[in-house]
């Protein structure tokens, strides 16, 4: 990715997350887990969640991939902790719209630091890298709800 085209601030935050990712470990006693691949880039991520009373009480991920996929997974797992599953689903839809260049109401409030990845919209080839972790979290929640 031509990260050099991004503003210095955004590039720095993305690189920090990729080099020192948050929540990049196996989760003890995870009750939801979903693995997704992005074959066009080679990213492979497994997202693990712990959910109680419809709230994500812990989130983590493992896997490998490019800078954007790792930074996005790091930010995503930070942002969804403490949110209800309904809120997380809204966040995933908002994030997906954002990186496709659509306007998202209250974007910064909805996505927190992950709203920085809005800049990915300039690089269509990287949209799947950015959304991979978010889709995995969404599908993990959907599966848990269909099992209830
Ligand atoms: Zn990638």
General description of the model:
The protein has a three-stranded antiparallel β-sheet with strand order 1-2-3, with helices on one face. It contains five helices and three strands. It has 148 residues and is an alpha+beta fold. Residues 38, 41, 43, 65-66, 68-69, 129 line the site of zinc ion. Zinc ion (ZN) is lined by residues 38, 41, 43, 65-66, 68-69, 129.
Largest sheet at a glance?
3 strands, antiparallel
SS summary, helix count? 5
User: Please, what is the average pLDDT?
Assistant: 93
Ligand inventory: zinc ion
Number of E-state strands: 3
Helix vs. strand class: alpha+beta
Q: Fraction of residues in helices?
A: 40-55%
* Major sheet: arrangement of strands: 1-2-3
Q: Report how far the terminal alpha carbons are from each other.
A: 41 Å
> What oligomeric state do the depicted chains represent?
single chain
Low-pLDDT segments: none
- Principal-axis shape equals globular
Q: What percentage of the residues does DSSP assign to strands (E)? A: 15-25%
The rounded Rg comes to 14 Å
The H-and-E topology, N to C, reads as: HEEEHHHH
